[in-house]
Amino acid sequence: MSDLSAAPDQFIYIVDDDEALRDSLVWLLESSGHHVRAYESAEAFLGLYNAAMTGCLVLDVRMPGMSGLELFEELTRRHCTLPVIFITGHGDVPMAVSAVKKGAVDFIEKPFSERDMLGLIAECLAAEQQNRGKRQHEAETARRLHHLTQREREVLDLIIAGKLNKQIADVLGISIKTVEVHRARVMEKMEANSLAELVQNVLAAEPGQGR
Questions:
Q1: Per-residue pLDDT tens for 66-105?
Q2: Where is the HTH luxR-type domain (predicted)?
Q3: Domain 147-210, what fold?
Q4: Would you list the domain boundaries of the chain?
Q5: In angstroms, how far is CA 93 from the centroid of its own chain?
Q6: Model-level pTM?
Q7: Which of 21, 123, 131, 159 has the most CB atoms around its CB within 10 Å?
């Protein structure tokens, strides 16, 4: 099952007060090549949680003390980026559906098959890795934008607005040749291979820019 394995830095965090279920999940996931950490309560996980965690969270809906839903809501307030899968008994399905509407990835009813759980885990890990890469790319784009000069930024903003070189020159009161020089420097500093790539990267890093 190597195709289901997590990336080296991804962990599956299991939060469930049922020791037998917790242990069986740890065995299933570790034997499938995953890195796993298990917690007996929401409070235990929250006490060790940090924003740098990567992977996904498998969370029981109903637990003594802080419930799985309460933990999920607290993590949402902290802008946690871990995908969440809820484990639920039949009577807790409405609560799990509510959690999915609030951003949880999915829920799985007990008793569940190993295949279904592994499939959900694989989907979550792939999505988390992709989203993390996207966030890192956007952060790098923002860093590059910060290093543009004021004039380069003005030229870039007009490029994003769909202006041609002559129009940019008219707006800024500079020559077309100067616009071309600034435009080339913008492309170089932003490490964009095409105008389309430049626009897409900037709009992803600054979503309101194209409005």
A1: 999 999 999 999 999 999 999 998 778 888 888 888 888 9
A2: 141-208
A3: Arc Repressor Mutant, subunit A (1.10.10)
A4: 2-135, 147-210
A5: 25
A6: 0.75
A7: 159
